[in-house]
Structure prediction request, 339 residues.
Amino acid sequence: MTTTSTDVSADPAAVKTRGRVLPPPVTPAEIALVAVIVVLWIALAFATPAFLSAGSIVPLLVEMSPVALIGIGMTFIIITGGIDVSVGGAIMVCSVITGKLMRDHGLPLLGCLAVALGTGAILGLVNGALIAYGRVHAIIITFGTANLFLFVGLQIFASQPISGMPNTLAWFGRGVDGRTLAIPHSFAITVVLAAVAWWYLRHTPGGRHFFGVGGDPVAARLVGIRVQRRILIAYVITGVLVGLASIFTLAKGTSNLDQSVGSGQELAVIAAVVIGGTSIMGGRGSVLGTVLGALLVQTVKSGVTQLGWPSQLSDLFVGIFIVVAVGTDLVRRRARRDP
Prediction:
């Protein structure tokens, strides 16, 4: 095995660059996702003309940004064969610590960023160290730390919501201060970070090592990849992105923060990653697909809301997309095993 073969599909359209075989920059699955999103947007535009207005699109992009942002890190994790169900609790911890410091001590914008990113990095380091060096499956560790993080967050809340928070983070919000040329800053930052992650995974030896770890960790270790280090890095990256996502969450425009912050986010993130084409079995994935998956999930939720349908239908539709994505991945894997 080489360190580059695990991220390459059997697609004959794969291209060779500098002696390496790389998948096409945009995969057929991602093209299909774009087509589905376009069809949905056109259908929603006819069903409710307000959907394509700035008053609808800007909130949609702001709402999807935290999910897509954490999804970038989750893509790294799932590519290595892991998973992280603790990100909801981690968002709560990062948000409540940053929110209290911002309200009670007048923490400025840069200070909020430092606290949130630092807290997220520590939480990611805890997960990564336990998984990489404790040799316990990621689902067990992160299920445990999810409950631990929730307990810590609730203790900091002390059964009281945080009210009267200042508008320190307006630059990341959905208001006028949070936009440049009508593009939300949070969305723009997410796109830039996704592009950097896409390039890193595709064009650097270190990035391709993540695919090697997920494809076959034993073989990866034999060819010199530091498997434990890659796993640790994946969780720390996710922790940092969780910290930044908590800033986006705090900046959404409300002056109150309650104990529901972060609830259910882990499911939305994993859904975006899986729908985006990352194999839940590890060894294959796409950051671009994750961002498109997050956009599809948020489009469904926004569309259901604007059409006045029961909110449970959005969960149904997202669930269908997940089943289709996982089923397609299993069929593809079986086809590669059976010539």
In short: Residues 88 and 286 are 22 Å apart (CA to CA). The longest helix spans residues 54-79.
